[in-house]
């Protein structure tokens, strides 16, 4: 009886982990009955991961909902479909980013694509989706992902994440602040992007000064921890929202999906940093542990 009572008390005192709702759908081409299907002779799959979603009602925070650029009729999907079968992944945002990477069904989604026989699996992560893609391959180097394309991702955090919204979304937003990213990178100091995974940062910017994409500062997109790993960067003259919705962005992402993205040399990194920011290597970003 005492053991049962102790077990019951432990269950009551244990912190409740919210269930993270997820959705995985094939959006290009849309298969019959929505059953995931590899197109004949297609060896490449692209999985689209969205970022932070503003919800008007707190009840919607936990709901997995696709963004307009993740649906079959979206320009980005139609453009990428020329290069690959296209899939979209959505997740509720009622948990920290760490929990979403681990518990929100992404490992199962990638495994299902691998089981379909794709030789290339490319994760395209917009904004916070880019952080999820990065952390996933760092933690699961043998999962089958062959390439990650980050788009306007807040690797160094963003002041925009301090916005006051629903309490249930606060843990997710805290993961995206500059302080949150510093802590995450410090806690994950030994984690590196696997050598076998191609990785590239698309740096969006609005205006000639190349200071921000309107949401994420440019110095927080391609940070020094990535520069030290010689991750290439592709600057793109689009703001945060347009980086997944315009013809310019869609064509640029399709090219990155299609072409090899090898690591740069340290000299290439230094040259790009000077051209983009006129700063020496190691001088970018606020999130370097």
Structural features, described:
The chain has 289 residues and is α/β, with parallel strands linked by helices. It has a single domain, classed as 3-Layer(aba) Sandwich (Rossmann fold), CATH 3.40.50.1820. It is built from 10 helices and 7 strands. The chain has helices at residues 2-13, 75-80, 97-103, 106-115, 128-139, 170-174, 178-187, 224-227, 247-258, 266-277; strands at residues 22-28, 44-49, 85-91, 120-126, 147-151, 198-204, 233-236. The protein has a 7-stranded mixed sheet, with helices on both faces. Helix 2 (75-80) links the parallel strand 2 (44-49) and strand 3. Helix 3 (97-103) crosses helix 5. The longest helix has 12 residues, at 2-13.
Question: Short summary of the structure?
Answer:
This protein is of the alpha/beta class and 289 residues long. It has helices at 2-13, 75-80, 97-103, 106-115, 128-139, 170-174, 178-187, 224-227, 247-258, 266-277; strands spanning 22-28, 44-49, 85-91, 120-126, 147-151, 198-204, 233-236.
């Amino acid at each position: 009886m005492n053991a049962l009572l102790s077990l019951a008390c432990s269950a009551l005192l244990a912190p409740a982990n919210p269930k993270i709702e997820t959705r995985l759908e094939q959006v290009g081409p849309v298969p019959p009955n929505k059953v995931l299907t590899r197109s004949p002779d297609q060896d490449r799959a692209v999985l689209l991961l969205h970022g932070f979603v503003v919800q008007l009602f707190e009840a919607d925070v936990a709901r997995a909902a696709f963004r307009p650029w993740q649906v079959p009729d979206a320009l980005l999907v139609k453009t990428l479909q020329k290069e690959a079968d296209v899939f979209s992944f959505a997740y509720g945002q009622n948990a920290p980013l760490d929990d979403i990477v681990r518990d929100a069904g992404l490992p199962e989604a990638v495994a299902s694509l691998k089981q379909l026989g794709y030789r290339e699996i490319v994760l395209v992560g917009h904004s916070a989706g880019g952080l999820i893609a990065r952390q996933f391959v760092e933690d699961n180097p043998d999962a089958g992902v062959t390439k990650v394309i980050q788009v306007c991702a807040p690797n160094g955090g963003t002041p925009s994440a301090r916005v006051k919204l629903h309490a249930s979304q606060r843990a997710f937003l805290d993961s995206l602040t500059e302080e949150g990213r510093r802590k995450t990178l410090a806690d994950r100091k030994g984690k590196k992007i696997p050598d076998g995974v191609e990785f590239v940062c698309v740096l969006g910017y609005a205006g000639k000064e190349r200071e921000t994409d309107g949401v994420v500062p440019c110095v927080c997109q391609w940070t020094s921890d990535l520069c030290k790993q010689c991750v290439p960067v592709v600057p793109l003259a689009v703001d945060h929202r347009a980086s997944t919705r315009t013809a310019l962005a869609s064509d640029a992402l399709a090219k990155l999906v299609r072409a090899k993205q090898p690591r740069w040399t340290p000299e290439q990194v230094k040259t790009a940093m000077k051209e983009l920011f006129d700063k020496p290597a190691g001088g970018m970003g606020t999130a370097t542990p």
